[in-house]
Amino acid sequence: MKLLHEYIRLILLESNKAAEIRDYYGIDLWMKGPYGGDQYEPDIVEIESLVVPEEKRGQGIATDVMFELVRWADSNGYILALDPSSDFGSSVSRLRKFYSQFGFSGNKGRKKDYRTRYAMIRYPKNKVLKEEARQPSFKYKGSSNYFRVELPNIGYAEGGLNLRFPDCQSDVDALMETPEYLAAEKKYVANAKPRTDIVKNEETGQYEEVEIGQAIFRPKFYDVNNAWIKNPENRGKGYGKQIYKEFINKAVEYSRSSGGVFIGAHHCTIGSGTSPEARRVWASLAREYNSSGDVIFIGL
Question: What CA–CA distance (Å, rounded) separates 43 from 79?
Fold first, then answer.
């Protein structure tokens, strides 16, 4: 009876990550776990099904999903396990080659993990995928008005300072009501110097600098004007998201004195100019930040 209860528990233990990815990409993804870990061994997450609908194939979705899964597994220290199957059109050998690109290997021999029956397994590799390890390879050009971040031999993102986002004003308005924005505004007003003006002292006839009110919170606005992955073979491998994140980090660095920053897709400033691929990357990014539509806000 105890074994039956454990089996039922594992069947019901579907990862929230699977539901999140399934809903976003519109694919068939089911996972079980994490389970089975202890003080000596990491938890296991079994990828029971990963199927991209025929009408969505050839767009790099499976690659994007796998990069997101391995990054998630690495950040949590999970082992991933799966079983390549030809049930949905692709050959087992082709699938093995595909999954091996993400660090999967055969679950066999002296290293076999008997907690799972699946044929391929991947151990967490934090040192490989942590962004901190990759960031030193970025190169930077420009200034706070307009700058570029470049990942050599891969691609770049560039953009600059704007007065506002006319085509995404509703997103900005929504973000101005969020707790993160309100907290950043409160912090900025409490710590920034009050506003001053030069006025004439009627008694002395001298002009003096006097306080006229508290500081006004005015976050900066940066948009990603252009982003590009040079080699088509490098697209769909997570580099675009990594480059966008580094652009965001640089915009944050340039906005420290303002107390906050809005960062948006290029169409927010001119009404167009953001490709479907860039929108997909941007939408994936937006889930990791305080966001509305194609605009994110970061309080400093």
Answer: 6
User: Residue type for 104, please?
Assistant: F
Say which CATH number the domain at 94 has.
Answer: 3.40.630
**pLDDT for the residue 9:** 41
Boundary (domain end) residue, out of 91, 112, 129: 129
Tell me, what's the pLDDT at 39? Answer: 59
Q: What is the pLDDT of residues 107-156, one digit of tens each?
A: 887 678 888 889 999 988 754 333 343 344 899 999 999 999 999 889 99
Considering the domain architecture, whether residues 150 and 291 belong to the same structural domain is answered as: yes
CA–CA distance, 15 with 18 (Å, rounded to integer)? 5
The label of the residue with tokens 């891969």 reads 154
The list of the chain residues with pLDDT below 70 reads 1-15, 38-40, 88-89, 110, 126-136, 271-274
CA-based angle 3:108:103, to the nearest 5? 105
Q: pTM to 2 decimals? A: 0.55
Residue range(s) defining the domain that contains residue 278: 131-178+217-299
Q: State both tokens at 28.
A: 């068939």
pLDDT confidence of residue 261: 96
Helices 61-76 and 276-286 sit at what angle, rounded to 10 degrees?
A: 20
Tokens of 199: 């006025």
- Per-residue pLDDT at 223: 93
Ordered alpha helix ranges (H), the chain: 2-12, 16-25, 61-76, 92-100, 126-129, 131-134, 169-175, 179-191, 239-254, 267-270, 276-286
Closest CA to 70 of 3, 112, 152, 128: 128
* CA end-to-end distance (rounded Å), the chain: 54
Helix, strand, coil: what percent of the chain each, to 5? 40, 25, 30
